[in-house]
Structure formats: structure tokens, C-alpha cells
Amino acid sequence: MAKHDQNKDDRDAILARVGEALGELLDRPLAPGLYLVATPIGNLGDTSLRALAVLARAQLIAAEDTRHSKKLLSHFGLRNALTPYHEHNAERERPKILARVRAGDAVALISDAGTPLVSDPGYKLVREALDEGLDVTSVPGPSAALAALTSAGLPTDSFLFAGFLPPKSGARQSRLAALKDAPTTLIFFETPQRLAKSLADMAEVFGAREAVIARELTKLHETVIRGTLDGLSEDIETETLKGEIVVVVAPHAGVGTAVTDERILSELKLALETNSFRDAVRSVTEALKVKRARVYELGLGLTDKT
Questions:
Q1: d(CA 129, CA 35)
Q2: pLDDT tens per residue across span 64-96
Q3: How far apart are CA 46 and CA 41, in angstroms?
Q4: In Å, how far are 67, 139, 147, 206, 262 from 153, measured between CA atoms?
Q5: Could you read off the pLDDT of 232-271 as tens digits, one per residue?
Q6: Of 3.30.950.10, 3.40.1080.10, 3.90.79.10, 3.40.190.10, which CATH number belongs to 145-249?
């Protein structure tokens, strides 16, 4: 059999199996309850079969922005009833949505993109539904925070999602100071307009830690920029970024001998890309809380090899 024919047979088999799997899900009755359905953060191909099946069978879809959500639904030929649910109308709409669930309907909650309740409205709706003994089901899927974390190259065994920082520098630095000693990778959402100032505050509070800027994840112009906070802060001032942005910051490194030579060398290499030798030694010393003499000696070894 020719390779082209084999590939076509494989493609047809995959399409048939996907159709069967989706059909099986669509044929199952959808129990009354509130369904938290994750939707794509950019690439519509990230929509799961289960998400499609729930959205197709729900009697009502509560969406953060119905105009935005109509694009997703129309792409898959879904024509369910939509109702807006966002921070400005939540107090008024929440009782109506809960009444629909109590009456026996399946209601799906979706955000503009990604997983509902992650920096999106919905917590109070879920809380009140649970307090009333109503069923709440999560249909997991895309998340900008997790997509950025897993592609950042920073520790993933423990992380803290800190959402959006305060818009004003004073409050922002206070919030960052409270997170400074967290022994875990930090994840932030930020707007393009505030990114440079936020990075500058992070560099001031955290020092020259490794960090990653991820924007437009899963979209055509997806960009992941790696460096140190101080370097990124200086570089980003002259750039104009658009789209949704996630900032991932390396954890507090600990104190003294717990920091390995390998970690110091890795930090130094990154710092030397954007700093003089003297400034790189200083920033790594401050970030890792180790003795300057130790960083200096290791740095000399790096310069001797160049």
C-alpha cells in the first residue's frame, strides 16, 4: 500500500473514531447542574470533545461576553440560549441562573477564554450552588496560566497563581513583597499597558530572578520570552506588546549552601546576557542570597572560558 493511501486510511480512521466518541457523549443525558466548561484561549482546536458535548446539551450557557462566545459556538454549529454573566451583573443574574438549575436545567458557565473562575467571575455562583446542594461539575481544559508555566522551563512541582497585580506601583510593590519569599514558582497575569512597570517593580522587589513573558498563547503570534527580571524590564520598555500576557517568575532560591553551583552558574549566564560582569554578580548575589565571593569566583570561571 502506498504511503499516501496509508496516511489517508489513518486519517479516516481517526475521524471516524472521534465522531463515534463525540456521538456517544452527545447521546448521554446531561444531568441538571452547573457545569464549569473550559474553552480555548486562542486555538479553537483545543476544544475538548466533552466540552462540546456539554455545551451542545446545556439548556443555558452563561458567558462572560456573549458576543465573544457566539464566535466559538457558531464555529461548532451550536445555537444554545446564551445569557451574560460578568462582574457587573453578577448580583442580579446569579439568582436567575441558580433558579434554572433548581428547576432541573443544565447550565454551562464559560469565560471569554480558558478555565472559568481563574481571574474570571464565577466564585460566588459556584459557592451558592454548592451551599444549596446543587451539583457543580468541572469540565477541564485550556488554561493560560498552566500553558505558560509548562513552557517556561521553571520549576513546576509547586507554583502559586497570583492573578493580576494592583495597577498602582505602591500597592503592587506591597503585594510583591508579600510574595518575595515564597518557595514556589509565581504566575501573574498582566496587561500590555502595565507590563513594563510591573516587571520593573518585580526586578526591584525580587532581584534578578529568571522569568518568562508568555503572550498570545496557542495563537498565531504566540511568543515566549525568557530572561531575568531586570533584563526583561529594560528590554520591554522599548517594545509594544499586544494581547493577553502571562508572567512566570522563578521561586525564591533559599539561603546559603542550599543553592548549588550549577544554579548560580545558570543564573550568571542569564544575567551576563544583559548585564556587565559586576552587575551580573551583584544581581545573582541578591537574588540567590549567597555570598558575593562565591558568585564572583564562579563567574571568573565563566569568563576564563570565553
A1: 11
A2: 999 999 999 999 999 999 999 999 999 999 999
A3: 8
A4: 36, 27, 11, 18, 15
A5: 988 886 566 777 899 999 998 653 345 788 888 988 898 8
A6: 3.30.950.10
